[in-house]
Amino acid sequence: MEKDRLKKICIITGGAGGIGYHLSEGFNKKGYKVIVLDIKKQEELSEDIDFIKVDLRLETEIKYAFSKIT
Predict the structure, then answer these.
(1) How many CB atoms lie within 10 A of CB 38?
(2) pLDDT over 60 (residue 4)
């Protein structure tokens, strides 16, 4: 329990496709808790990676995403 609470968190914007996808998967394999913020899933992420649908052009959606993270 204590170890999970201290896990490092990695937030990747645009992490559901392309280079971001590979970064997400790489950080996940290194033991980070990965949270992907993107407008849509372009590729299927590992099941332990969290995805939050966010349009990064919209401040309200960014605030919503970070409220979910915290």
Answers:
(1) 22
(2) no
